[in-house]
Amino acid sequence: MAADDQAMTFEQSVQAAIELDAPLNERLAVIAGAVRRMNSEFADAVDRLVDRLEKQGAGAMAPAAGEAMPGFLLPDDEGKLVSLAEILAKGPAVITFQRGHWCPYCRLNAIGIVEAQRQIAELGGQVVVIMPERRKFAQAMKAAVGAQFPFLIDMDNGYALSLNLAIWVGAEMERLMGLGFDLPSYQGNSSWFLPIPATFIVGTDGIITDRFVDPDYRRRMDIDDLISALRRAR
């Protein structure tokens, strides 16, 4: 690692990842590397969390390609109720779950999708982000990434739980995350549950054509894969 990388603050590393001209997962790896460099205790705890989730098969029972995407009716960042049927009436959809406005990986993931908004629109695609936070935090994240698509609010992870995507972070991560993040305030509850940040590509017939589900929140569906999947869903 270069000396100037070592001198970067965490936010500078996040900004460097945002500005990097590379596939999304390479950009996300920059953030993961900064976390490990600056807080090895936290990075090691994340490794243990991911290992536990992988051994438990977390996310494996989420809806799969070829299955119908379960419907939802959720409020958006403006308080309007939005249904899956309403979205699919406009075109194939990218349904992506994000952990929260505080998560730099989620911020970069959303920015990657924003950068591809023109390509998505040319394919007739619709995008919705689903996150388990109060409306003001969803609004803040939408504004921060410059998104034109809606951010839907899944309070108490109700929809994520129905898809077998919600996980408890565990006592160790609850303690460590609590040093910097007030999830009970963000979410309006003290459960310390988060969604696995999955992405589903859904055709206008409501059938999932592709999905990305990984209990390691440091990895996401690459944008090129998302665009290719959206083409298949048309």
From TrEMBL:
Domain Thioredoxin: 63-234
SUPFAM superfamilies linked to this entry: Thioredoxin-like (SSF52833)
PROSITE patterns: THIOREDOXIN_2
Pfam families linked: Redoxin
Domain of life: Bacteria
Full protein name: Peroxiredoxin-like family protein
Source taxonomy: Bacteria, Pseudomonadati, Pseudomonadota, Alphaproteobacteria, Hyphomicrobiales
